[in-house]
Structure formats: C-alpha cells, structure tokens
Amino acid sequence: MVYKILALSIMIIFYGIYYGKMIVQKKQGIKTRQLGKGKNLNIRSVEILLSIATLVIVPIQLISIIFDLTILNDNIRFIGFAVGIIGNILFLISIITMKNSWRAGIPSEDNTEFISNGIYKISRNPAFLGFDLMYIGICLLYCNVLTIIFSLFAIVMLHFQILQEEKYLEKTFGETYITYKNKVFRYIGRRN
C-alpha cells in the first residue's frame, strides 16, 4: 500500500505542476499547449506521437499501481520514488525559471524569451529531464512489461521533441543559442 501512495504522490505532484502552470498561463492569455498545430509535417508528427505517448502512459501507470504490477524488490522501488521526486523538483524549478516562456511544444502562435539562467545553466532541457525521471521513477516503483515499453516510448518521443526544439531555437535565436548549446549539455552538465 505504501508504494501505491508514493507512486500516486509522484504523479499527482507532477501533473499538478504541469496543469497548474497551464491554468496560470491561460489566465494571462498564454496558450501553453501548442503540440502538433500549424507546423510542418515533421514537427507535427513528432509532437502528435509525443502527445500520444504522454497521454497513454498515464493509464498504464495507473493500472500498474492499482493492480500492484511489479517485478522489483522494495529497495529498488524506493529508489524509484527518489528518482520520481527528483524529476518533480527538476520540472518545477525549470518551469519556474522559464516564467511565461514555458510551452508544451514548439511555439507557433507567440514569441518566447530565450532562457539560459538558473537551472538552464546546467541543463538545456531540465523540464524534459524532469519528465524522464518521473517516468523512470514510476517504472521502478511499478516495473512490468507495459510500464517499461510505454516509459521508453515516452522518453524516446521526448528526445525527438528536444531535437526538434533545438532546430527551432537555433533558427530563432541564432548565435546566442549556438554558443549556449556549445557550453551546456542537452540533459545535464556544462563545459567551461
């Protein structure tokens, strides 16, 4: 029962942050979710697959939690809880740092500010890293064939989204972004 509470807590906190930020931005007239709309076929395809991956994984995670489907021992499961909490913290810090420039998808309707301060000094994609760690955490808490497959699918699609966003950022911010990209690693770390 304790692992059900821990896993559900990770999910509730994560999606509370995600949707809470969207609600706050909507009240300010900002359309946060811009996945798969009005873009070229390549970007739209990645964003639609990302949407599918991130929507389908939630019921898979919930089914795994409700039916206690796991093959791992308690020590590994507790590590999963820690990883999930770290993912939530990274995600929260990243969207706070981005302020009103945070979007889900490549913005097609408005301009955003280039952010390279705070947590973005050590990760170009801390929000995506937060997603990945949350998925990995739940997968370790409730490890089974379905959570492994769908967690990997979501993580791969998030990576493809990052690659699309990097092209967009290079095009939009030019040399400023290229210099930043050469200093800060995609997931975590930086060069001096």
Describe the structure.
The protein contains six helices and no strands. It has a single domain (2-183), classed as Four Helix Bundle (Hemerythrin (Met), subunit A) (Up-down Bundle). The longest helix is centred in the last third of the chain and has 29 residues, at 145-173. It is 68% helix and 0% strand. It is globular. The model has no long low-confidence stretch (mean pLDDT 92). It is mainly α and 192 residues long.
Task: Throw out a few tags for this protein.
mainly alpha; globular; 192 residues; Four Helix Bundle (Hemerythrin (Met), subunit A); 6 helices
Write the layout of secondary structure elements.
Blueprint: H1 2-27, H2 41-66, H3 74-98, H4 126-141, H5 145-173, H6 175-183
Helix pairs in contact: 1-3, 1-4, 2-5, 3-4, 4-5, 5-6
> What level of helicity do the residues show?
55-70%
Report the C-alpha radius of gyration, rounded: 17 Å
CATH topology: Four Helix Bundle (Hemerythrin (Met), subunit A)
Q: Provide the residue-averaged pLDDT.
A: 92
Secondary structure tally, helices: 6
- What general outline do the C-alpha atoms trace? globular
CATH class type: Mainly Alpha
End-to-end separation:
46 Å
Biggest pleated-sheet summary: none
Content of β-strand: under 5%
- CATH architecture, by name, is Up-down Bundle
Low-confidence stretches: none
SSE string, helices as H and strands as E: HHHHHH
How many β-strand stretches? 0
Domain module tally:
1
Helix vs. strand class: mainly alpha
